[in-house]
Amino acid sequence: MSVRSLALLIINLFPVCLCAQNITDTSNGNLSVTVSFSLMTPGTSNTPTNSTASFRIRCQNTAGYHLAASATCSFVPSQPADGGRTLDFSDIGVGITAVDTSKSGVIKPRVDTIATGFNYDPGSITATNGLTPYSGMSSGQATIADLADNPNLTILSGPQIAAEEGKGNGTNYITVTMTFAELPQYLTSGTLTAVVTLTISNGT
Amino acid sequence: MNKNKLILIGAIILVFAHMGFAQTSGTITITGTDPDSFSITNTSDATLSATVVLGVLSPATGGVLSTGSTQIRLRSNKAYILNAQATALNFTGPGAADGGATIALSDFGFGISSIDATGANVANHVGHTIVALFNYDPTTTAVTNGLTPYVPGTNGTLNNITASTQILSGPRISTQGNISTDNNFLLCTLKVATLPQYFTPNTSFSTTITLTIASQ
Known about the structure:
heterodimer, A: 2 helices, B: 4-stranded antiparallel beta sheet
């Protein structure tokens, strides 16, 4: 093989293999979003407090894509539990509440599939008696604990998104919105930090 | 450098440039704070604003006290103290004392007659301590000779809470849940009583008791 042929092979092969998908924030930058619940002061409402994060995914791989999620969590209490309950990561519901495929460059018709347990809006679940309302992924209401317990869990998948995946193209992406929610309660005081890592890979 | 090397270097640069653009993962960080939380509500879980009406205090025979009570719900996610403070008696239409006595805060017995910590989502069913002076039911105090029965230093009265004064304390109350949860609170019954006597007449009187729950 000549040097010229080798060069062409490298140029043509690697973009397909290494860059067949990408995930960005809604400004096409690196996805590093912070969702803050601020102060979770208990009230009288049975409606959880919710917050959302949106991001863009692109995929030119003909085999489609998988979007996987993992979570690492920590809660630092500021006092002893003193007989009460401390925030558990199963207290925070997580779901995919929107998959916007409307951009003109997105290949259609298409079916993007939200994994079982994540196809719900945790902010719309009504609590009973002021207690955490989420039943877990297997019961259709996923929580952060499900992501922590099942690393690299596929939460969304679908076919090829567009013919190319350049981030300068304004029409070749799907916008995904994830919603996180929690019902403020008289849980042990302290500070929550959870990091959800999203990874997109090809569909094969 | 020959032409072939330039082509190869160019190809490698292009590959690494593409690799540099490749961005297949990202992070969403979720943050929040569970603050120290305390609340006092009425038995409907609404803001506490109760009025105790003692009515017309006409003197009579015997020792029948005019009484009133109110129940409150306390919730907390850490150890607490409950303070009470009464304002001075406010009279409208006061008559002349003419050498007699006028009703005073010390004529009103004030106490916590019961606390109920049995709810399933109560973190500590025991350990809630009423300050001794207020640990009684002023509506059952025996009257002697038709005079105010409350003994200073033994029976708490409104005169003991003219400044913000601790009347109750305890460990964390609520295991979980919020202000609408029906079994995560301490139910506290407060009572007040007075003996109608030949005090200086007035059209009406009032005092406001402010309750405050805070961290120990």
